[in-house]
């Protein structure tokens, strides 16, 4: 008899967004005259800049002619795109060889798939709160125990608490972890790790022979010159860190699908030799993956030209301006607001110690604004909600106005 993977039954997430949807639906049915403002989802809304559309179109056109048609491409990614990604890093004086770059169909698949090169008994550590994919993919793979209701977390996972006291970036864990997930700029807190904070993790990883999986999907929102965009800006990071990146938030490619992963040849794992992790990932990709879409890759090449980069910056600035408007109104209400300056997310503490779901209900009932309850991102998210700054400006302005007029703090 074919048996299903029992680890799927351990998952409790998948509960968060359906629950939000259910509550919003109920609210809309009881209040048909009210317009709901959705600031819950982290999806891009603004059109892809014309110069990048030209690249995508070029990719399509090439398929229509015998002279330029291409079928299967290099599983590791078009060489021209990998060269552009290498130059993207070189702007920060980071030397990444094109053999260390693996083009993908987005960061999320790579976050899940990268685990296949690690031993099943690896101990994992995540920031708490965290992007749920790091946790859920490990649950499905079988690296965790069951969900513990009291702890509001899975047995076997090290949760690194990120809270007001540590500025939403925890120091490395006291115990041993094999795989450490870090996300900066952070989803959901909007916090960006400093050079010193990342250096501490690199020292930990070198000492413990651990690996850091660094998710840099939001790096292009950083405006503060004193904050690192890539973990490889820190000395020795290539010995212990894998970086995962995406065109989703850089260029509005959430639907186009394109990303990349860096597996340095210097990376050394406990039982490995330099280059082994790189060659395992190459083996994994050439076995399970047939390369990213050639059309998407043409778009990616355009996005990384100087003109494309300029337009992408304007796109990120647009969302950051949205974040500024949201931050302003919430602070004027006397709320504590974190993030939203170098990231498209704002992490907002509920008034008078109310819980995440109660704050969610309050914003929905009083202001018709939908956010994401912080507790859905991990136990330390209790008491907070996440505002997303992705949205059309006119919708953000309406939401902000509603908060200003109706939120009773
Ligand atoms: N990493 C983080 C932290 C995210 O918030 C998201 C999407 O919201 C992703 C990765 C997914 O990126 P992609 O669209 O490239 O799969």
What does this structure look like?
- Helices cover about 35% and strands about 15% of the residues.
- By secondary structure, it is an alpha/beta fold.
- It has two domains: about 10-45 and about 315-405, Aspartate Aminotransferase, domain 1 (Alpha-Beta Complex); about 50-305, 3-Layer(aba) Sandwich (Aspartate Aminotransferase, domain 2), CATH 3.40.640.
- The strands form four sheets. It has a seven-stranded mixed beta sheet with strand order 2-10-9-8-7-3-6, sandwiched between helices.
- Helix 2 (about 50-65) packs antiparallel against helix 9 and helix 10 (about 305-330) runs parallel beside helix 12.
- It is globular and about 60 Å long.
- The termini are far apart.
- Pyridoxal-5'-phosphate (PLP) binds next to helix 4.
Radius of gyration, whole Å: 21 Å
Helix % is 25-40%
Broad structural category: alpha/beta
Query: Quick one: CATH superfamily of the largest domain?
Result: Type I PLP-dependent aspartate aminotransferase-like (Major domain)
Bound molecules: pyridoxal-5'-phosphate
Straight-line N-to-C gap: 58 Å
Instruction: Trace the largest sheet across and list its strands.
Output: 2-10-9-8-7-3-6
Main β sheet profile: 7 strands, mixed
The shape is globular
Number of domains: 2
CATH class of the largest domain: Alpha Beta
């Amino acid at each position: 008899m074919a048996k299903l993977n029992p680890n799927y039954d351990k998952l409790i997430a998948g509960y968060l967004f359906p629950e939000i949807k259910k509550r919003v639906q109920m609210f809309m049915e009881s209040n048909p005259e009210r317009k709901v403002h959705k600031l819950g989802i982290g999806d891009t809304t603004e059109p892809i800049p014309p110069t990048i559309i030209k690249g995508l179109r070029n990719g399509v056109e090439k398929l229509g002619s015998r002279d330029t048609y291409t079928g299967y491409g290099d599983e590791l990614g078009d060489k021209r795109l990998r060269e552009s990604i290498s130059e993207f890093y070189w702007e920060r004086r980071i030397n990444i060889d094109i053999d260390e770059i693996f083009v993908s169909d987005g960061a999320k698949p790579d976050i899940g798939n990268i685990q296949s090169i690690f031993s099943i008994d690896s101990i994992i550590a995540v920031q708490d709160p965290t992007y749920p994919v790091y946790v859920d993919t490990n649950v499905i793979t079988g690296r965790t125990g069951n969900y513990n209701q009291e702890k509001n977390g899975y047995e076997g996972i090290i949760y690194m608490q990120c809270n007001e006291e540590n500025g939403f970036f925890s120091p490395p864990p006291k115990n041993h972890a094999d795989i450490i997930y870090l996300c900066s700029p952070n989803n959901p807190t909007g916090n960006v790790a400093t050079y010193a904070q990342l250096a501490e993790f690199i020292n930990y990883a070198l000492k413990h022979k651990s690996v850091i999986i660094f998710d840099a999907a939001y790096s292009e929102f950083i405006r503060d010159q004193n904050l690192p965009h890539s973990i490889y800006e820190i000395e020795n990071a290539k010995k212990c860190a894998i970086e995962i990146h995406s065109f989703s938030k850089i260029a509005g490619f959430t639907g186009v699908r394109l990303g990349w992963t860096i597996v340095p040849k210097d990376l050394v794992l406990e039982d490995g030799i330099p280059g082994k992790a790189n060659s395992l990932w190459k083996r994994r990709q050439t076995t399970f993956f047939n390369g990213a879409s050639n059309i998407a890759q043409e778009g990616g090449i355009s996005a990384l030209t100087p003109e494309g980069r300029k337009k992408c910056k304007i796109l990120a600035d647009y969302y950051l301006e949205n974040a500024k408007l949201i931050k302003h109104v919430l602070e004027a209400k006397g709320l504590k607001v974190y993030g939203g300056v170098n990231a498209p997310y704002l992490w907002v503490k509920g008034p008078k110690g109310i819980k995440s779901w109660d704050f969610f209900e309050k914003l929905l009932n009083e202001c018709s604004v939908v956010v994401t309850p912080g507790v859905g991102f991990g136990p330390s998210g209790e008491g907070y909600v996440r505002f997303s700054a992705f949205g059309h400006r006119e919708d953000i302005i309406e939401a902000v106005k509603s908060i200003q007029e109706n939120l009773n703090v």
